[in-house]
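Structure tokens please, single chain.
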Amino acid sequence: MHPLLSFLQPPYQNPSTNLLYSTMLSLTYFPLSPPLITSPTLSPLPPLLLRLHHRTVSRLLCSAAQNVAIDDFVGGRVEEDDVVSLPAGLRWEAMPEHVAVIMDGNRRWARTRGLPVVAGYEAGLRALKGMVELCCRWGIRVLTVFAFSSDNWLRPKVEVGFLMRLLERGMKDEVNNFMSRDNIRFSCIGDTSKLPDSVKELITYAEERTKHNSGLQLIVAVSYSGKYDIVQACQSIALKVKDGVIEPEDINEFLIEQELQTNCAEMPNPDLLIRTSGELRVSNFLLWQLAYTELYFTQSHWPDFGETEFVMALRSFQQRQRRYGERDS
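Here you go.
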């Protein structure tokens, strides 16, 4: 018995762990196929290396393991005390894999408290850090946040300058945590040509530094426009047609999705979109990608959006039936 599977032996014998154990033993083995199960404290899996497919296997494992953190299991780091419990009313197998957030209400939050606008953005950054931590803990694979839209360049220069400095400071503070503690992969989408050089350099550094991380993928939309995202995808395809790389009849939904900026993610289309601060619109965010996304709106301003509010959004999501155009079951 390989040590990675030994924690499933007595006293852990119950139907759920038996299912997990059976699932692990029935997985197909492929030589040299990432992601690999490795650990300084474990020997390699003989004779071949185990490959897991997150979309088809991880949800079964999460459900069967009865609150054992799947990423710790896959990473070979499960100990007897490494148990993660979901809040009451949430189910592992029904958790969204990709959550998108329009972080609205920072300025209104500050004004209602008689604080300067910058205090609202500072509080919003703290709320984002909390959201990232919860996504890591609860097995969400992708978190995409709307940090700065292409329309936000029209705001006062002082405010824009502060937001750029806040973005830069936030990345500087967190990139080492992404590597050493959280195993987060950082990505940025949007028209980065308009950003200050220091911010562009830091984005490039963070993406390169974390590109091999296998935990949560954090996608930050900066100077982003959903309309422009579709336009640039069409322009890229048009050039390929012009150069004879593809024919016009080759153009389909799959090809367009490959040219969208969210192609940096394994799961580019959000399962759940959350918008805070009471606005009931998507504001030019991920227009193509939201085609089948469940929408959740809350009156809470973004700095007030914490674990309680996130749980309410996830419960709402898990109570819905996603049919993708099919009839009710």
